[in-house]
Specification:
318 residues; alpha/beta; NAD(P)_OxRdtase_dom_sf; TIM Barrel
Length: 318
């Protein structure tokens, strides 16, 4: 089951897990409420995001909304366990401004995945989630993720404990192997199908089309590079510095967008929705202004001629 009637824009809740900077509980709730007010109804979280903080905050927010009016997903593969060595430190190695009193423990076993879901439900305060993703299997053991993790997810779906299952990854090889498992409903493609680079278009997206697997497209700003019209060496790419060659390509794309009076972030948000396999675009945000701006940019009219020009110049794939 991959058709939930997603809206075009969905919210990825890493920021309310204090990604990069700390938010108060009130600030996080305001961000989530703003997302709701703009029409967003799909919220994606994970234990990884702030060592459970994102799940707790998302759950606290969703407790104020009718259960049949939202879609929520979380992820499995990393269990959270006590970390005495982290006392007095922050989880800076993973870019989250939260106390490192817990640690992530990889576990793709059927028992580990079931426990991960149970613990996520407790943090969320929900009886169920709609979608469950295997998170970043390539970062630990892709073979184990495919051979043990995906069947474990499928068993939970077969039991009716979740409605749909998928894999979320930034790795094209992992995404392709996951699709070829023939067990998934959805695939969360993170940063591999964007306005500035489209490696997933070679095999992953066509395979999803053939098998009727819906694509939930995340990180369409490439972790910040495409989020602003002001490009420079300060721009962030994949959580780090942007390679100069990629920055030059992005500036070319931005130049074409400017010719058509289209903001670069608006083009980045809307580009992949032209692909029929893409069900929704998941974007984060740490302020209400960012959320409202993304919602507005998703509705801006973009002329077909702009896309044709970008294709003709070899800047995007058809």
């Amino acid at each position: 089951m991959s058709d939930f009637g997603f809206g075009a824009l969905s919210y990825g809740a890493a920021n309310v897990g204090n990604l990069y900077r700390s938010l108060t509980d009130d600030q996080a709730q305001t961000v989530l409420e703003t997302a709701w007010q703009t029409g967003i109804r799909y919220f994606d979280t994970a234990p990884h995001y702030g060592l459970g903080l994102s799940e707790r905050r998302v759950g606290h927010f969703l407790a104020t909304k009718p259960r049949d009016e939202f879609i929520v997903s979380t992820k499995v593969g990393r269990l959270l366990r006590p970390n005495p060595e982290g006392h007095g430190r922050l989880d800076a190695a993973n870019d989250f401004a939260v106390p490192a009193d817990l640690k992530r423990v990889w576990d793709f076993s059927a028992d580990g995945i079931r426990r991960s879901l149970d613990e996520s439900l407790a943090r969320l305060g929900l009886d169920s989630v709609d979608i469950l993703y295997l998170h970043d299997p390539e970062k630990y053991d892709l073979t184990l993720g495919i051979s043990a993790g995906i069947p474990a997810l499928a068993a939970l779906r077969d039991e009716g404990l979740v409605s749909a299952i998928g894999v979320g990854s930034m790795c094209v090889a992992a995404l392709l192997e996951s699709v070829r498992s023939d067990a998934l409903d959805l695939l969360m493609v993170a940063g591999r199908f964007t306005l500035v680079e489209q490696p997933a278009l070679a095999e992953v997206i066509p395979e999803c089309r053939r098998k009727g697997i819906g694509v939930v497209n995340a990180s369409v700003f490439n972790s910040g590079l495409l989020a602003s019209n002001n490009l420079g060496t300060h721009s962030r790419y994949e959580y780090g510095e942007v390679p100069l060659e990629l920055l030059a390509r992005t500036k070319e794309i931005a130049g074409v967008c400017a010719q058509y009076d289209v903001e670069l972030p608006a083009a980045a948000l809307q580009y992949t929705l032209r692909e029929p396999a893409v069900r929704t675009v998941v974007v984060g945000g740490s302020t209400p202004e960012q959320i409202r701006q993304n919602a507005e940019r998703m509705t801006v009219g973009i002329p077909d001629d702009m896309w044709r020009t970008l294709v003709a110049k070899g800047l995007i794939a058809e």
